[in-house]
Amino acid sequence: MSTLTSADGTLIDYDRHGRGPAVVFIGGATQYRALDPDTTLAARRLADAGHTAVVYDRRGRGRSGDTPPWSLDREVEDLAALIEAVGGAATLYSSSSGAALALAAATAGLGVNALALYEPPFFAGVDHTDHLAALRSLLAQGRHDDALRYDLTAVIGVPEQVVDGMAQSPTWPAMVAVAPTLVYDLAAVNEINLDPDWRARWAGVTVPTVVFSGDQTFPGMPEAADAVAEAIPSARRRVLPGQGHGPTAEVMASVLLEFPRPAQGPDTPSPAATPVYRARGCRRRSGSTRVRSFEAALITSSSTSRERSRSWIVRSMRSRSLTSSVTRRGVAISDGPPSESRMQGSNCPILVLFRPAANSSWIRITRSTAVSG
User: Fold this and answer.
1) Cβ atoms of residues 173 and 17 within 8 Å
2) Model-level pTM?
3) CB 293 within 8 A of CB 279
4) CATH class of the structural domain 2-126+169-257
C-alpha cells in the first residue's frame, strides 16, 4: 500500500500494481478496497498485461482520511494527485456513482486518456434533495446503520427484506463504517440529475469514452447509460452480456485492455534507465506548505557551444508533475502549452520550481545539495 497527500492535506491510501500505461479505478457509493476484492483482481490482471493499475480508497473510506467540508472538487484534487503519482496521465474506470468524479476530472482538464463509465446512475430531473436531508439527519444523530438502510431502500429501491438479509453479512459493518460518505455520492449525483443541460456540462469531455451497462442489471440502468452516452460527444455505448450492476474482475479487465494504449513519447526513457537525483535538507514555505524534499528524474541532456540545457520532471508529495528546462539563464517551467512557459531564476543554473496546486504560488528550491541516488 502507498499513500499521498492531497491538496487540502487529506491522506489518500492506494495500491499500485504493475508498470505501463496507467488505469485508475474509481469506486461508487460505499465501494472501497476492503469490500471490493474484484476491482483489485482486475487491477492485477491489467498489471500482468503491462499496465499500471491503481485502486484507492476515496476520501472518508477505508485507509484514506477525510477533511470537511466535502466537495466534489476536493475529490478531483485527490484524483489529480493519484494521476500525477503514476506519471501525469491515466485512463479512468468508474463504477456507478464514481462516474460523477471521473467526468468532473475529465472536464477539469486532468491528464485523462480515456473514460470507461460503468452504469452511471444519473436520471435527468430526479430530485434527491429530500433524501439528502433525511440522510444528513440520520448521520447527525449517529444512526449510521439506519442511514445505510435508508439509502438502500428509499434511494436505490432495494426491498427491505433483502436489506435485512444483507445486514447479516459479515461485510455489513464495513458498509456501515462508510455511511457518512453516502451523502457525498448522492450530492454529486443529484447535482447532475438537476442540471438541465448535460450536453453543455460535458461538452469539454473529448477523450475516448465508453459507457457500459450489463444486461442483467437493475431496471433503468441501461436507459441511464444511454442518456449519458448521448450527452457526451466522444462517447459510445456498450452492453456487456451476463453482467449485473458490478461486472466480474475478468470482464472489467478485458474491456479495459481493449482501449488503445496511449502513445509513448520518443524521448521518454524506460523507468529503469532514468537517473534520479534527490535534494536533501531543502525547506521552503509557500502559504501553509512546507517542502522537505523533492525528486527530479533526468529525461534528456544536451549541450551546445553557448549553453547546456537539461529537461527534468519535478515531483513532490504535494506537487503536480511539471516539465522544466534548466539552463544557464534560469528555469523554464511549463504545465501547459509552450506558450505558457515562464522563465524564473535568472543566472541560477541550480534552481527548480514547483507549485503544490494549480492556483498556488511557485516554490523555489535550490539543487545545491542534490546527490545522485
Assistant:
1) no
2) 0.72
3) yes
4) alpha beta
